[in-house]
Amino acid sequence: MTAAVDLYPTRRQDQPRWHERIDPISYRRHDREAPLTAQQIDQFERDGFLLLPNAFSAEEVAVFRREVERLRSDKGILASDAAIREPDSGALRSLFAIHQSSELFARVAADERIAAKIQHLLDGDLYVHQSRLNLKPGFKGKEFYWHSDFETWHAEDGLPRMRTISCSILLTDNSPCNGPLLLVPGSHRYFISCVGETPDEHYRRSLRKQELGVPDDASLADMVSEGGITAATGQAGSVVLFDCNTLHGSNSNITPDPRSNLFYVYNHVDNLPVEPFGADTPRPAFVAERGPVTPLRIASQRYQ
Ligand code: 6CS
Ligand code: FE
């Protein structure tokens, strides 16, 4: 295979650099069939994320939470590589590939309330690049340090272009106190290359605590002074859509209440991974789908 052109170099130099984003943010304008308003598309374009309060009902959230409990007590799943532990306490932090281990969560991935919106924004067929359940348990859930997801997916998985959107479905109320997702509006417009070389099997460490592939302090300070920080708080059932290059992170959860969410990453079918741009070997399939893929069949779903 000939090497693909690297439009977003990272983890190769000893100084961080900013690159202008080359790719569109929303790939399609508003039109009459759009499942988003013109204002929502503009907001996504401007901020790099969009909040959809109460997209799922309390009854649906209850169904999702029962499924979470079922997965969490499945010994096979807990013993697999897809189960990621907290760095200090060993409590369960994340479960990956839930669209493969759970029929219900496979259906949720195709739910038109989320997938049709993302299909519009990315203008075409989608598949799930990554899915996970993030638990952030009360008292024990540790932070996720600031990062751009695309930086990791480009360097370690070989995603060539920014044509990827993440969707987080809140399974518990996210308050300012229990470690909600924090986003930097406008940061999706620049790619900050990071310093440091990717070690072998970096994901085993980074999924518990990410220390490499994170922007330098000066770049972060600049981005935040420009755009500020928005906490994606909301009731359970609310949804956050965010661009693959929007800087985000979250604090530890020292409250008694968990902050759990379901997380899906949708990629356009024309943007399949190639060889990693900043690592020797690609990550395993449970963290990053490598294809061949079948486009998602988006449908109206009801859960009970
Ligand atoms: O590795 C991933 O795919 C995701 N997880 C972490 C901790 N950082 C990058 C990305 O969000
Ligand atoms: Fe992330």
Automatic annotation (TrEMBL):
Its cofactor is Fe(2+). Keywords: Dioxygenase, Iron, Metal-binding, Oxidoreductase. Transmembrane segments: none annotated. It comes from the Bacteria. The keyword Iron applies. The keyword Transmembrane helix does not apply. Pfam families: PhyH. PANTHER family: ECTOINE DIOXYGENASE, PHYTANOYL-COA DIOXYGENASE DOMAIN CONTAINING 1. Homodimer. Belongs to the PhyH family. EctD subfamily. This is Ectoine hydroxylase. It comes from Halopseudomonas pachastrellae.
